[in-house]
Every structure is written in C-alpha cells, then in structure tokens.
Specification:
The chain is α+β, with helices and mostly antiparallel strands. The strands form three sheets. Strands 9, 10, 11, 12, 13 and 14 form a six-stranded antiparallel β-sheet that branches. It is globular.
C-alpha cells in the first residue's frame, strides 16, 4: 500500500457517540498498522477548518447515527471535494430512513417484515390507544418497535403483550419522533457485510448472531460475552449463497458504495427477511464487520487502506 494521510472521523453528538469513538480507535490502529498516517478527528465545529488547512488524502467515517449515516457529513465532504470512504449523501439518506429503505426492498421484491411507521403526532391527535389497537390488529403480536432512524438498536424492543405497548412506545419515542412497528420475525438472525475492494462489490461470509438474552439489543451488541457469533452462519450452503445474493441486491438497490452491512432474519420458512442496511458498519471489538473480515482471511487495516485508495482514485477521476 502507498502511504496516505487519512482522517478518521469519530465521536459526533448522536446517541451512539461512545460506540463511534470505539470504532474510530480500532480503525485508526488498524490503518496505522499497515503504514497509514492517521489523524483522529471529532465531528465538531473545528472539522471544516481542519479539512481546509490539514487536508488529508481521504476521510474514513467511523461515525454512527445522526450526521455520520444520514448523509450530512458526506454532503459536507462532497461540498469540500474531500475524498471519503463510503456511500454518497443521497444514498445515505435512503438507507438511514428505515421506512424508505423497506419500501424500496418491497418494491424490488425483496422480503422485509410487514410494518407501519407513525409519527408521535398521530398518537396524540387520533388517540394513542385507538392507534395501538389498530396496529396490533394489522400486524399482530409480538411486535418489534424501533425508531424510524438510528442504529445500535437504541430504543428497539420486542413487545409480546398489548398492555406493554404504551410504555414501549414512550421509550422508543425518546430516540426519534416516528416509531417503526414491524411484525416480529422468528428465525436465525444474520448480518452480511458487503465490501468493494476489487473490480466488483462482494459479500463476506454471513455472521450468525446468537444473543444470550434472546434479543440483539444495545446491551447485547456492545457487552463482551453477551452475544455469540458464528461465522460463517450455521446454515446450509444454498442459504449462505442466498444471503450473499440478497445483501448484494440491497447494496445495489440503495446505491451504496464501498461497504455496507445487511441485517436480516432467515425465517422459519427459509426466507431472507431484510431488517435494515447500515452504511457505516461498526468496527468495535464486538462488531460484525471485523468478524466477517477475519473469517474471510482478510486484514481490517489492509481492507480499509484499499478502500482509501479507491476513494482517492475516484476523486482523481
């Protein structure tokens, strides 16, 4: 790899700040290990001036949630003509808004759990209980509730009893103004990362997620030992191929670039149900992308160094 100076952006002001800082530290260390000069910068009021006066060869975004995934930082980097690893701003916005992405999947014939997204105002204006009753009648129980935007499963919870719905809705609305309610899908939870480190994007080995508490929530994601990962997933070869094909289809459909991660469930009928696609996969010690990279026999630093080279070449082109 040729030597580059790369700025790793981590932190920010989202609910996922601490997770982002962990991702940023690990990513910076991995890049330094392969000879890259790394600057670790927060996404704060000093960022634009730093980008102008200490212009790096490229930026790697390790921000999770908020401006790191909704296209805001990407739009600023495009405005300043700074090369960066990751998805362009418009496609980030499509993937970030879960109802929008799910509608894209459904239109393309990809399976995603049936859902409804409703803003807080709807419950206030039409009567919370009447709306909740209609939601249960349509989607059944159990339900998966989650913010319509956001990551790390913050605010997400499974509700099996209708009497628990009001409190669960209040908890979910603490993270967003709109709640996405999905029909809960039982099955094998998997994650498939896509990387574009060669002529074409390719899917890495699917990772099976076995959360000891049964639900892969925030605690299960970031507490060492709370979740067991199997890579490749304990599924037959045909299903592993289907998972890779589905992840690539979702990646192309949303117009994603460089890397992404599809979260899905293989249901009891053997269908791949897409939950969401992440444009800024975590790289903490308990994250899924590094697990898949290691299972593929790859080095995390070399992978991102290759993606940096691609970003620089795109800028020249």
């Amino acid at each position: 790899m040729s030597e580059r100076t790369v700025a790793v952006l981590a932190g920010g002001l989202s609910h996922e700040r601490e997770v982002s800082l962990r991702s940023g530290r690990r990513l910076a260390g991995a890049l330094r290990a392969v000879g890259t000069t790394v600057r670790e910068w927060d996404a704060d009021a000093a960022l634009i001036e730093r980008l102008r006066t200490e212009r790096p060869d490229a930026v790697v975004i390790a921000l999770h949630g908020g401006e790191g995934e909704n296209g805001a930082i990407q739009a600023v980097l495009e405005l300043l003509d700074v090369p960066f690893v990751g998805t362009p701003a418009p496609a980030c916005r499509r993937a970030w808004d879960k109802p929008t992405a799910k509608a894209e999947f459904a239109r393309a014939g990809l399976n995603t759990p049936d859902w409804i997204a409703l803003p807080h105002a709807t419950f206030r204006e039409l009567g919370a209980q009447a709306v909740l009753d209609a939601m249960v009648e349509r989607l059944g129980l159990p339900l998966m509730l989650k913010p319509d935007q956001g990551g790390s499963a913050l605010g997400a919870q499974v509700v099996s009893n209708a009497t628990d719905l009001p409190a669960a809705m209040v908890s979910c609305l603490a993270y967003a103004d709109t709640v996405l309610a999905e029909r809960f899908v039982a099955g094998t939870e998997v994650a498939v990362s896509v990387v574009h480190d060669g002529p074409e994007p390719r899917a890495l080995p699917p990772v099976e997620v076995e959360a000891h508490g049964g639900i892969y929530d925030y605690t299960a994601r970031y507490t060492p030992g709370a979740t067991k990962f199997h890579c490749p997933a304990r599924l037959d070869a045909a299903m592993l191929d289907l998972l890779r094909e589905t992840a690539l289809a979702a990646h192309h459909l949303l117009g994603l670039r460089d890397l992404s991660r599809m979260d899905a469930v293989v249901d009891t009928e053997g269908r791949v149900q897409i939950l969401e696609v992440n444009v800024s996969p975590g790289v903490t010690d308990t994250s899924l992308l590094p697990t898949a990279v290691a299972a593929a026999g790859m080095d995390l630093g070399r992978l991102f160094a290759t993606l940096v080279e691609r970003a620089v070449e795109r800028s020249r082109g």
